[in-house]
Amino acid sequence: MIAASRMPKRGFTPAEFEQRLARAQQIMHRHELDALFVTAPPNIRYFTGFDSQFWESPTRPWFVVVPREGKPIAVIPEIGAPEMALTWVDDIRTWPAPVPEDDGLSLLRSALEGLPRRFGRVGAELGREMSLRMPVVDFLRLRDSMRLEIADGSPALWEIRMVKTAAEIEHIHFICTIASEAYEALPSQLSIGESEREATRKLRIDIARRGADSTPFMPAISGPGGVPQIVCGPHDRIPEEGDILFIDTGSTFDGYFCDFDRNYAIGRISSEAARAHEAMWLATEAGIGAAVPGATTDDVWRAMGKIIEEAGPIGNNVGRLGHGLGLQLTEPPSHRPGDGTVIVENMVLTIEPGMEYAPGKMIVHEENVAITKDGARLLTKRAPREMPVIR
Amino acid sequence: MIAASRMPKRGFTPAEFEQRLARAQQIMHRHELDALFVTAPPNIRYFTGFDSQFWESPTRPWFVVVPREGKPIAVIPEIGAPEMALTWVDDIRTWPAPVPEDDGLSLLRSALEGLPRRFGRVGAELGREMSLRMPVVDFLRLRDSMRLEIADGSPALWEIRMVKTAAEIEHIHFICTIASEAYEALPSQLSIGESEREATRKLRIDIARRGADSTPFMPAISGPGGVPQIVCGPHDRIPEEGDILFIDTGSTFDGYFCDFDRNYAIGRISSEAARAHEAMWLATEAGIGAAVPGATTDDVWRAMGKIIEEAGPIGNNVGRLGHGLGLQLTEPPSHRPGDGTVIVENMVLTIEPGMEYAPGKMIVHEENVAITKDGARLLTKRAPREMPVIR
């Protein structure tokens, strides 16, 4: 079942990490940062390759210092040292966490203060679409006892991570492909009379069988001709004739996410619902067409928005029409007015038009693309123009 | 396959939330807090019952204000409003997130400042084993513009969540039971020659089939007579004759975690490894026996530590011998010297002795218990005294 032949090699070469680091250090220099220190799993993984499901436990903080020159320094709980030693990182400093009195703080401080100083500033994950994975009281204690300024490093971090390497895109492409195939197979596995919860259980198991590592995100909801929301569920509700069953998934392979949805018709849907579905399919085409290097996220939003407007929406509570993805289910930028991000080669983006066409009846489409010099390349298998039917 | 007859009802009654709130408000009063505001999924879920896998997306902050009197107030992105309206929460305030310029901040501030004031302080998730799920720059902006003091609410929050309700314990018991059964069935599904990764894939699928909602945590590792660490993996390594295959899991049902491991012998293991395994089995017995109301976490640590010491360990990089669990894989307290938490009825704890008995050879056991007035009650099915064998 697992498409081993198409599965990318897990992990990344030291050359890849060197390339990531060199680019990051250029960006840090431009942001006038002597170092970044990161605490969030996707950031730690990006710079070191280190992976652990143990991050599910919030008890112990983990730190990685990325200096403006030289290789990353890991400042981590002892429990993680044997595995960190298998990565390309050489400088690993540990403490016997958990130690509430000093959970890595003095070790982190001396790592930061031991670096060559040029700008007198280090960047941390303080801003947009990030949160600091350590107690705030510890962060404030660190900040107030350091001789260096701690600045918001998130603009630099997002500039670094927003553009993917070829190997990252290959990873995302693989998880998009197997999720696409599982979505396609679902109508053959599911019958009218099975609940939303049963649908996701089957899809989740199928995606695992095809080679995904995990499925942290799989909301599902059903309703007559559309759904009232797209981020919660599944519930025990049994979809009925005329319903649309909406399923979205963020599944992962080797740390990288897909993020796209599919809609299924339960038996025959109304012509109104079919029209709204057709409009969202066309809006997706427009979004894919607009996602070219040099365009902005506002342009992509506008291209989709035009078609959505023509279809006569009464609302959309999502707040945007797509976003970046990679080591996180959602990353900057956002396709929304005012975002203003210039799209460049090797970004990976979702194209996600949606609308409420009647009260409580939303239809949302989503595909994932990588940006090439010639425009958007689909990483997902394009959703069929006609909604697949569960019988 | 799903043990529907034993599966607890999903969700909790309004009476349960009222009971949680009343107890929380007593604790808040004692901590001199006019309110708590929470951002982390387990805390939001604890007070509202609201669930969403969408929290996997870090883009939008979510807030719930728990006042010292009256019901919780949800201050959330519009995208979540239809589902929040299905909970027992009446007061739901939304904004069209993401709005980087003001992502809920002014709405949250006015919710907090509109509350009756007695102590002039509100508590936030600033301390131990918590992190704030919002940008730190936004938190600091809120703090500096509020007429109320923002204090560390984590001691109050942990006092609230550390003691479980009967319905919470039933949830944890169910996920412990199905994970126990899946662990028991694994030797019949796995053969020598299959990789660590294949072992977890099979176990993950089996746990899903038996009724788990998700498996955010399933590290696996194998090695001759023991393992070098217990929090990373699986890798593609194929366990060999004489190896021990270690698997741990935090799987969930309706938001509640189990957290326990099992060890498997690949063919015949050395007598040294068998002796270390026997010692950890006995240390687990001692830990279970020591976890009685009135004892401290230090006592539990000491009871296990005594048997571990007699077995001649050379180390243990875990930093403690067990902890609390519930809506998180790990929660306070910790069985470690100096933790000093007094164990009371209805705590749910892991009992997790381990040791390195030779270089790179760790053996770690783990069970989950609920504390009753008579002592610890096993929620997991006790691991067999003899290690199960994969052939």
Q: Briefly, what is this?
A:
Two copies of one chain form a homodimer. Chain A is an alpha+beta fold.
Describe this structure in words.
The structure is a homodimer of 391-residue chains. Chain A is α+β, with helices and mostly antiparallel strands and 391 residues long. The first copy, chain A, has two domains: 14-162, Creatinase/prolidase N-terminal domain (Creatine Amidinohydrolase, Chain A, domain 1), CATH 3.40.350; 166-390, Creatinase/methionine aminopeptidase superfamily (Creatine Amidinohydrolase), CATH 3.90.230. Helix content of chain A is 33%, strand content 22%. The first copy, chain A, is built from ten helices and 19 strands. In chain A, strand 2 and strand 3 (73-77) form a beta hairpin. In chain A, helix 1 (14-30) packs across helix 6 and helix 7 (166-189) packs across helix 8. The first copy, chain A, is elongated and about 65 Å long. The two termini of chain A are 25 Å apart. Chains A and B meet through helix 3, helix 5, helix 8 and strand 7 of A and helix 3, helix 5, helix 8 and strand 7 of B.
**Overall mean pLDDT score of chain A?**
96
- Which CATH architecture of the largest domain in chain A is right? Alpha-Beta Complex
Structural classification of chain A = alpha+beta
Q: Sheet bearing the most strands of chain A, described? A: 6 strands, mixed
CATH level 1 name of the largest domain in chain A: Alpha Beta
Count of individual helical segments of chain A: 10
Oligomeric assembly: homodimer
How helix-rich are the residues of chain A, as a percent range?
25-40%
Under CATH, the topology of the largest domain in chain A is which? Creatine Amidinohydrolase
* SSE run of chain A: HEHEEHEHEHEHHHEEEEEHHEEEEEEEE
